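Closing statement on the glycylglycylglycine sub-project.
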Amino acid sequence: MMTAQNTAIKLLVLPGDGIGPEIMREVRHVIDWLQSRRGLTLDITEDLVGGASLAEYGVPIRDEVIEKAWAADAVLFGSVGDPKWAHVGFEKRPEVAILKLRQELGLFANLRPAKVFDALVDASTLKPDVVRGLDIMIVRETVGGIYFGNPRGIETLPDGSKRGINTEVYTTAEIERVARVAFDLARKRSNRVCSVEKCNVMESGLLWKEVVTDVHAKEFPDVELSHMLADNCAMQLVRNPRQFDVIVTGNLFGDLLSDLASMLTGSLGMLPSATLGAVHENGKFPALYEPIHGSAPDIAGKGIANPIAQILSFAMLLRYSLNKQEEADMIEQAVSNVLESGLRTADIMSEGMARVGTSVMGEAIVRELDK
Ligand code: GGG
């Protein structure tokens, strides 16, 4: 999974829309610190995606940006989405930028860790005792399923009314590769995988369960495997989340369940992610890192967004793409210490804590790194 680096590491930074640029600014301070204090040499290129690219170039992402992503050692992505473009056809929506990047780079495994910081047990929507120590890894498949299956589209029926169509498609190979990522991860954690689908009503779910069972029996018999229907999983995440270690699931269910899980950690603003592809024969390992939250246009430009998910996404980049475990640990510890000190952005605010904005939170994390 890792690339060895002797020369300057090429990083493509794509802040995107809404709160994307303002939280990315805080990551840039963390990067500056690493460059000056830890001798890390990063060759950073920044470009436009999403609504920002639509405004400048008329497309959500240019081919040139995809090429830059291929040339980079890793991509750090912000968020895309802007209500200004809600009226345009699907192929021109800002969100196409992230979907296209995942597809073009073959980024099929989206790792979404839902970990509760001790200082935030009171910010969770569940009782502190239910979430203390919670550490779940949701592995969401990201280049297949209902997001990409055909047929799709909106068609007009003979009576003039319309029909919207999306199709859930999964092949054996697509399920196998994401299942392997989940089992591999489980071996480094608590050795348990829960595979989630809707095999009681969906053909693709039936195949999903069959293939995961097969991969498990042939390659990972030492890992404990369970199966759960997606609706039950949503309920169990709220009832008893600590029963889970690694959850592996399809594109849509993974999207929904990880948003749900984020609230167990206190806020959508806390969850980072890594989306990984396959290692190529030439050693190339495509990977993109982004917070699971979107562009939050309602709070964009107000300086109140939580930069932690974006900063933790960069820590995942250090861990998975650059094999900089110590630096990744330092960033995660700095976030933990700042939360312990009582600083809170609005989304994780609770009684008796000190409410701060985006830049104060970012500066506090860098100050903590300096200690
Ligand atoms: N940082 C995540 C982001 O920008 N999300 C916007 C979005 O629409 N994502 C689609 C998806 O994650 O499937």
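Residues 20-37 form the longest helix (18 residues). With this model delivered, the sub-project is considered complete and its resources will be redirected to Aim 3.
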